[in-house]
């Protein structure tokens, strides 16, 4: 009951206004939300990229942290084809007599990769104390988590995955329809079963 009330307030606010670089993509219920984030600063590792976050809430939210992971979304080939055709048509209408013709920017093709970061595994799982039971606080929200992840990416200078990325991803197995929940999930273990060690807070 409390989770529904809290999420209802957050959803109402999110639909009205979110900070720059954060977009609510899907919130059809009060269990699973999808949010896109962009790094607004000039970090070359994440230039011109948009990333998809998935929030899965329990009945104990916000006392209990949500499961938050990055989700890989392949490019929409139909959208890409349409965008390419549109760009070709637009290029034909550019005034060639203009001294400085402005090319049209390419439309979003829907591709959402998993960002490269020493604290983000290639399956989208994030090693961040804020998302763990010990580091979580009920004052946090979907918006504040997104802003924290934006900041984490902005300050990163290492174009690399966590040590042991391949072994960790293999131990987790594929993501289930309810994320990596240990109850009914398809993975070999639940995300709540993982005990991360938060050693490096410089990235």
Automatic annotation (TrEMBL):
Listed SUPFAM superfamilies: UBC-like (SSF54495)
Pfam families to which the protein is assigned, alphabetical: UQ_con
Keywords per UniProt: Ubl conjugation pathway
Entry-linked Gene3D superfamilies: Ubiquitin Conjugating Enzyme (3.10.110.10)
Domain UBC core, residue spans: 2-196
Region annotation (Disordered) ranges: 155-186
Superkingdom, natural source: Eukaryota
Composition bias type Basic and acidic residues, residue spans: 158-168
Stated name of the protein: UBC core domain-containing protein
